[in-house]
Amino acid sequence: xxxxxxxxxxxxxxxxxxxxxxxxxxxxxxxxxxxxxxxxxxxxxxxxxxxxxxxxxxxxxxxxxxxxxxxxxxxxxxxxxxxxxxxxxxxxxxxxxxxxxxxxxxxxxxxxxx
Length: 114
Known about the structure:
Largest sheet: none
Mean pLDDT: 91
Strand content: under 5%
Structural class: mainly alpha
Number of helices: 4
Shape: elongated
Radius of gyration: 15 Å
Helix content: over 70%
Number of strands: 0
Order of helices and strands: HHHH
């Protein structure tokens, strides 16, 4: 395995774990969590940029949040501290970070330059 491949795997693992830890630790302070997830996404971008990452971040944030809102309204699940429109303010940032991290993983698995 090449050094560059190991670096991408490490970046993916670090940011997946970081996202989970941030959500578990700060879900009771939604605005702080939103800022931390945004900062984490920015750090991921600086370490392993992906082409059109901001656009993909915004699309994933919007689509993921809309889909969750529909499911929440249908009673599939709920959040302990919902904010505006039944979902916490940090949720779009979590979806955006997830998309950014998975794009990095996809580029590594397929060998595509992104």
